[in-house]
């Protein structure tokens, strides 16, 4: 063993040893309790860099730690290999997606291996391989058979660059495509949907069960589901027999309605538009279709609209109101029509001002003087100008008016959701084919299960057609099919499935990855699921996590699992940022920005353990952290110090009982702190505690030589450092340990009595200002602490000539003296 720390010599040897021994391969029938650790599997769209490594390092630390805590750990890895990310990268490189994906998987697997990330590669899954997407197609058929998959003509989010449809969740807040950044428009297409809305209530209610999820993720899902209780009522139309349905959560303001707004896509727009307004309306409708939902709903955009020439009638008082169309009303939410109440809605107020409409007050603010409002009043108040309901508190008015509408058949209480059904159709090549055929005699027919998988053909020009059709539509031998029902000629569905379909069930497949008869056996899934610890980016809060919850509930209802939720505990790590040399700003690491740190360069220069230690030490793992080269150097120096501490011989020295006791205390305090910090995901302070213990061991060795407390401290340091820096600890354990792998050792236990401090620094305040500090025993009583503080020379001079009004003792911290 070299006296110098050369990680490039140490790390490859142990990586090979762990894989050969299959040290982190989960085994069935193990007597130890199961622990399922999982990091969100990646898109294989390019090389990894250090910005990617934070969640992998965290996941690996958890898996290694839990193994040492006595669990049978499953820590698998796979590849989310279908979809836009891989296909767009392949298009840019002018290479077939299959070849591009295979090359990247090999490269990324090698990089994870170099970083000492230990996965159970015997469970590896790749979503673009037939043995996986066969079961993705099988899941589609199960949803179709249960009425949860359907096809419908609908305006879809269309990315003109990717030339495909996007789900609402794949459109960013600025209205751009999450993959390529192009502005998203609308296009009418026949699309396949999954009925996630059937599970809206359960998805919302069960968020309360996820107390080990970040609060912000639960709030994001709650807002996306967007459950609203209100009243849906019907307005007559002057000169027509038709009615307009409107939904509102504030029916107490119905008497303040002065106009009605329809979504530009509303089916009554064409019928109700009068000839003199037709040209303006058609132009506005076309413009609105090109805008994203984000832009249409933005509070920053002025609320425009066009009068269509017709009038609606308020069902409560018969007043005649102009009908407009405006892009801030969406056909996908509520009824596609809103009542315009400018006195009590900010958007309506701005709209009314722009169109010179009256703004009556029907909910009086406290102390209202009867004058015109300067802005909309949106809070509770007293109902005025509301007929028989005048004088009611507005919350009571909501119930009374709802009752009245239901009694008179002009409205009813309803619940609406922001959540829309999951649009899964993609007009792209690189995805799992949808197992449906169309027969002129039989209509839409599902492929037989025994005929799965419907194979994705390889010899295809996979460039997007730009017509709204998938490239598969041009492959005659793929399109031609036999009807599973009548045996006649049929046409195969040419859309492929959204990649999120593939990634919403992979954690089930990991429990039984080689099964050729079923996607997984229930008893195997039940043995491992739910995932005990799931780690990944918060950007998946609404997409992948919501869809996975939906799938899990469907699988439960199918009898395929016993669980209600897929992920028991969720951790979302912050990003690693670095100075962008082009913009001069600190930004998320990205190849396109030129601010990445390559993994290979990092490992070749400092070793994987230094990279892991730094990335865990750089800051609280749930927050963004900036890459710092000096911090990397500091982590490298720390590991070199650990190496020298173990490798440099020391003679036995005189044993000082007090020095031994102090070192043992530090050792057991460190075991306690690292354990508690790892459990709380405070990895940065866990690393810091290891560094402090190392310093204490070095100082003890230099002063006292090799002693029993030093030997104990060295072993404990290597054990608690093992999940953080697995290679160096494995190497050094072979010198000071019992001959077996450090990662097979049990996690050390601390002695609570030894870990307890004997003394603490008592702070003494006078009128809130610190005036003295003194070391006292931890056993000191309140009266003793107060008398000691009052008798201190530094305190006496602040008490002279003053009277003591109060003394306060905070155990283990301070004495506060109030004088006058």
**DSSP helix count?**
27
- Through-space gap between termini: 69 Å
Q: What is the tally of beta strands?
A: 32
Helix content: 25-40%
Give a written overview of the molecule:
The chain is of the alpha+beta class and 820 residues long. Strands 8, 9, 10, 11, 12, 13 and 16 form a seven-stranded mixed sheet that branches. It has a four-stranded parallel sheet with strand order 2-1-24-25, with helices on one face. A four-stranded antiparallel sheet has the order 6-5-7-17. The mean pLDDT is 93. A hairpin with a 6-residue loop joins strand 11 and strand 12 (320-325). The protein is globular. It is built from 27 helices and 32 strands.
Q: Which tags fit this structure?
A:
820 residues, alpha+beta, 32 strands, 36% helix, globular
What's this, in brief?
By secondary structure, this protein is an alpha+beta fold. 36% of the residues lie in helices and 19% in strands. The strands form 9 sheets. Strands 8, 9, 10, 11, 12, 13 and 16 form a 7-stranded mixed beta sheet that branches. Strands 2-1-24-25 form a 4-stranded parallel beta sheet, covered by helices on one side.
Detail the topology: elements first, then pairings.
Elements: H1 7-21, E1 34-39, H2 53-68, E2 72-74, E3 78-79, H3 84-93, H4 97-114, E4 125-126, H5 130-145, E5 149-159, E6 164-166, E7 185-194, H6 200-205, H7 215-225, E8 228-237, E9 240-248, E10 259-262, H8 269-272, H9 278-290, H10 293-297, E11 306-313, E12 320-325, E13 337-340, H11 346-355, E14 363-364, E15 382-383, H12 394-407, E16 411-416, E17 422-423, E18 425-426, E19 436-439, E20 443-446, H13 476-479, E21 480-482, E22 489-492, E23 496-497, H14 499-503, H15 506-509, H16 522-528, E24 533-536, H17 544-557, E25 570-572, E26 576-579, E27 586-588, H18 599-605, H19 608-617, E28 625-626, H20 629-647, H21 657-679, H22 683-704, H23 708-721, H24 726-736, H25 752-755, E29 759-766, E30 769-777, H26 782-791, H27 793-799, E31 804-810, E32 814-819
Parallel strand pairs: 1-2, 1-24, 3-4, 10-12, 24-25, 26-28, 29-32
Antiparallel strand pairs: 5-6, 5-7, 7-17, 8-9, 8-11, 8-16, 10-13, 11-12, 14-15, 18-23, 19-20, 19-22, 21-22, 26-27, 29-30, 31-32
Helix pairs in contact: 1-24, 19-20, 20-22, 20-24, 21-22, 21-23, 22-23, 23-24
